[in-house]
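Q: My labmate handed me this sequence with no annotations at all. I'd like to see what the chain might look like in three dimensions before we decide whether it's worth expressing. Could you predict it?
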Amino acid sequence: MSPLQTAEQLARRTRRACAAALRAATALGLSATRARVLHDAFSVVVQLEPEPVVARIPVVLTGSSDSDAQHSRQQRELDVAGWLADRGVPVVRPAAQVPRRPVRQDGFPITFWELADLAEDHQPYRGADLAYSAELHARLADYPGRLPFLAPFNLGLPELLDQLRPGGLLSAADLDRVWTEFHAMRAVLSTAEAFQAAFPSATVQPIQGDAPSHNVIHARNGILFSDFEDVCMGPVEWDIALLGRDATAQYDAAAVRRGLRATDPDVQQLMDSARRLQFVGCLPLIDELPMLAPGLAQAVQEWRNSPGWSDQTGSW
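A: Here is what I predict for the chain of 316 residues:
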């Protein structure tokens, strides 16, 4: 793995992303003169002042590093968010001032969004009631476009796992377990058909793909769903993985009220295990985003203390 990025290197990356966003905005006809940073983590998010337009520039990639795959991923996000917005679902809308498609500028993949009117108490990643997730699933269920199956696991995770090496937070035995679990789970999660053969009573549908309860904007007029980068087909259990029994019960009550199925405990157990493995796979990203280190160290320890999924295969 590469050395940790220094504070100056991180700041330089942010400046480069801001400059790329301004150049892309100008090329699209926007009168942007300044990129004001709103958020800087996996993506640099900037308002293109004085326009009411936000650019999101991924700088730490949890998906494929292939530029065509990145384009497809961002296009899916714009398509789904736009489709939801056109039907009155409270989402962060794609910017109306530019075409609904990603652009690439100076090596950065960029998408453009409407500026949200944030509530005074908005905090990034602050969760929302699980009833919102059930409502989102109810609205997503009718999405007609084609989506990959469980994209974060099948399209993003393999490339990250290939970068893992023993040392630091992972021992050689840990790495062996990582691959044993991944291959065991991949046998069930590689396709919708394989999943439904293992869990015939569980349905799949379009899902947000990355904990929708924590990917919301607290706006002055209410909750707005955001960050559909990982939108895909899958069981709803993926979207509430690792949130715990109380959250699952809260989701189930809301889902049943909306005519959706309640979660399946066996599927939830598998999704929790797959999500833990995804966190382990993010270890190489610490080099690019050092702030991840404490949380991922805890995630690795929780994964290490959990039952190995290969030990649970008899329950399929």
